[in-house]
Design goal:
alpha+beta; 8-stranded antiparallel sheet; globular
Length: 686
């Protein structure tokens, strides 16, 4: 009987039982973008033919995902395409929140003529597929090229799925043929887009425009794609933003102290190198100017490699300057007997980390970090270094004299990091940051006269002008781009390495096109599907609902509306941030000057898909310079706030000093966010 019933049901997997049939079905029923295999050159190899081995030519190729087709696929989602209907929102003059608030966008006639043009952000990086310590290290290393679109709101753009694959090549081939060969088809498509390209969007032919606003990447990648010397150690000019020699770098700490690189002098220097009569003259010019070759990006109209390749704060700050300087200060404290390595490690391990800090918890330091061949930095990942720097006053502060000049130097460093990572910053804060960097580097030479200023420390002086040109530095950070590497690492481990780049591209494109099904609702795209997630949800009974209704009425929330479908949840995840009971959130401002009002989450309610927090309020006494945190006191007051009324989307945790005083250290400087909120403009709603 049962067999008869199921025998009449068609097999849902009929016709797709092989990989080839599955791929064919996906390409026919989904918006698939076919990759292109582009030949760079050929090499001679020995190939077995019968009983003999013959010499034959083998093409050397890389994989390119056509940019225009990829954009067309992206616009097939109605919710994504709606983001390009109007000109991007901008803040009032002097306030910087996103790339369109920077001068490169504001002063461009192109975006006045084409208000809904694409704002493209490119990215390039090398990825080691194999174990970096194994015998195959470097053999299968690949170069990955991505892009994302600045028109997408930052709360969505920070997701991994907002990062789109553009090209993938074997790193050895990139070195052999040059990065300009890889970028050539990309630049060709970008030129077409700049001049206007017709696409069929939702059945209608439309002409779309776009241009590259910046290219992100680490120092090595930025120098490589910009045509500069990758290793600045052998170059007279150490910087891609200014003409900076080593000796000048040790004594001058303001941007105005150096002659800036410009599009004009870059073109002139490249022309001199190209016209060199001998290899020796060419090599001397390359070393003198710090330039290897003219970048392919120069073919793009208006693109300026001296301005549009910003510093990456993940590599320059967190993996460079922060760890370099903290290590030197800790080494000083250890050598002078003010603290021991065991005390430092004990403080790191025993610190009371909040739930949002556990994943980035810094580990204990090895002795070799200070005394062995590894000495240079702390060997922390970027996220670990960021957390360690922010919590330093609470980890090692109780063990030291906080009036010590070396400790004050660390506080200056924390201040710089907090300002640089601010998602919203005003022109006054940018000017203060510039002054702070000058004073900080000057103090470095006073405290460590025998230690050299590194190129990454010098790059700090260019950050204030980069913010003015391209918006807050977090918008050009590599964090979201590098998170896209994880997919390729996982896929590579599940296959052999024959035609690796093609295999990775094929799997990525098949996986990506499944997000663009013909009949799927736009909200199911992973860019939006995880906007909100709930923990354990419990429906409120009538008594609890009536009690909550009274609290809403007393607070003036939802006046005249009867609460229905009320649920309480144990935790909530909104746009990637997880809110749990016991976490601290910024719910308002008070005083003159304005201070944030914090609250400890005790309840989380979902009411008709809207979220409200019940919080126990904390009073901000002041901002404590020594701890770089807000000194707070508990007050016996319960209040309710919606997510739309929050000052900042992040969650924080209460910390204590040696005397039991309570503090809230924030994840970045929020002074400007508080000012905007107090004036009725919340960046949460931009």
């Amino acid at each position: 009987m049962v067999k008869d019933i199921f025998s009449s049901v068609p097999d849902p997997f009929d016709g797709i039982h092989t990989e080839a049939l599955q791929s064919s079905y996906i390409k026919e029923n989904f918006n698939y973008v076919e990759y292109k295999e582009i030949v760079l050159g050929t090499k001679f190899i020995r190939k077995k033919k019968g009983a003999k081995r013959i010499i034959c030519e083998k093409p050397e190729t890389f994989i390119y995902i056509p940019l225009l087709d990829s954009l067309n696929q992206l616009l097939s989602n109605t919710r994504i395409s709606a983001m390009f209907v109007k000109k991007p929102d901008v803040c009032k003059p002097g306030v910087f929140y996103d790339i369109q608030d920077g001068s490169l966008y504001q002063n461009s006639d192109y975006f006045d003529k084409h208000e809904n043009a694409f704002l493209l952000i490119l990215y390039h990086d090398e990825l080691e597929i194999c174990n970096p310590l194994g015998s195959k290290a470097g053999v299968h290393k690949v170069d990955l090229y991505y892009y994302t679109i600045g028109n997408i709101n930052p709360k969505f753009r920070s997701k991994r799925c907002a990062v789109r694959l553009l090209a993938i090549a074997n790193a050895n081939l990139v070195k052999k043929y040059g990065i300009n060969r890889i970028m050539s088809p990309v630049v060709d498509d970008l030129q077409k887009l700049y001049n206007g390209h017709t696409m069929e969007i939702h059945g209608v032919n439309q002409k779309v425009y776009g241009k590259v606003l910046m290219c992100a990447g680490d120092t090595l990648g930025q120098h490589y794609i910009g045509g500069f010397k990758e290793g600045v150690g052998v170059s007279f000019q150490k910087c891609r933003h200014c003409m900076c020699e080593f000796d000048e770098m040790q004594t001058n700490f303001t941007e105005e102290s150096f002659n800036p690189r410009t599009k004009q002098n870059y073109d002139r220097q490249c022309s001199e190198i190209e016209r060199a009569t001998t290899k020796a003259v060419k090599k001397d010019l390359q070393t003198t100017y710090g330039i290897n070759i003219r970048s392919e990006l120069c073919k793009l109209p208006t693109f300026d490699v001296t301005q549009q390749l910003p510093q990456d704060i993940m590599h320059t700050l967190l993996e460079g300057t922060v760890q370099y300087e903290i290590r030197l200060v800790l080494l000083h404290f250890i050598k002078t007997g003010k603290i021991t390595l065991n005390q430092i490690n004990g403080a790191i391990v025993n610190h009371a980390y909040g739930y949002s800090e556990i994943s980035d918890k810094p580990g204990a330091m090895r002795d070799s970090v200070f005394n062995g061949d590894e000495k240079y930095k702390l060997k922390y990942k970027a996220a670990q270094a960021h957390l360690f720097a922010r919590l330093l006053p609470f980890i090692i502060g109780p063990l030291l004299d906080t009036s010590d000049n070396y400790y004050t130097f660390l506080v200056e460093l924390i201040q710089i990091v907090q300002l640089v990572f601010a998602p919203l910053i005003k022109i006054e804060s940018i000017q203060y940051l510039k002054q702070l960097i000058d004073e900080h580097l000057s103090n470095f030479k006073v405290l460590f006269p025998d230690v050299n200023i590194t190129p990454k420390q010098h790059y700090l002086i260019h950050i204030p002008s980069a913010i003015k040109a391209l918006g807050p530095m977090v918008r050009s950070s590599c964090f979201s781009f590098e998170s896209a590497h994880n997919y390729f690492k996982i896929v590579a481990r599940k296959q052999n390495f024959k035609k690796l780049t093609m295999s990775l591209a094929k799997r990525h494109q098949l996986n990506d096109c499944c997000n663009f099904g013909c009949n799927e609702p736009a909200d199911l795209h992973p860019l939006f599907s995880s906007e909100i997630a709930y923990g354990v949800v419990k429906a409120l009974d009538k008594v609890s609902t009536d009690s909550l209704q009274n609290m809403f009425n007393e607070s003036g929330l939802l006046p005249g509306i009867k609460l229905e479908n009320v649920f309480e949840t144990s935790w909530l995840k909104l746009y990637g941030t997880t809110y749990k009971k016991g976490a601290v959130i910024a719910v308002g401002t008070v005083g003159n000057p304005e201070l944030p009002v914090f609250g400890i989450i005790s309840k989380i309610w979902s009411i008709s898909e809207y979220v409200y927090f019940g919080v126990d309020l904390l009073k901000s006494v002041n901002f404590d310079y020594t701890h770089q945190a807000y000194l707070v006191r508990f007050i016996d007051h319960f209040s309710i706030y919606s997510t739309e009324r929050l000052v900042d989307y992040n969650i924080f945790h209460v910390k204590k000093d040696r005397f039991g005083n309570k503090y809230v250290p924030v994840k970045y400087d929020i002074d400007d966010i508080i000012e905007e909120y107090a004036e009725g403009r919340s960046y949460m709603n931009i």
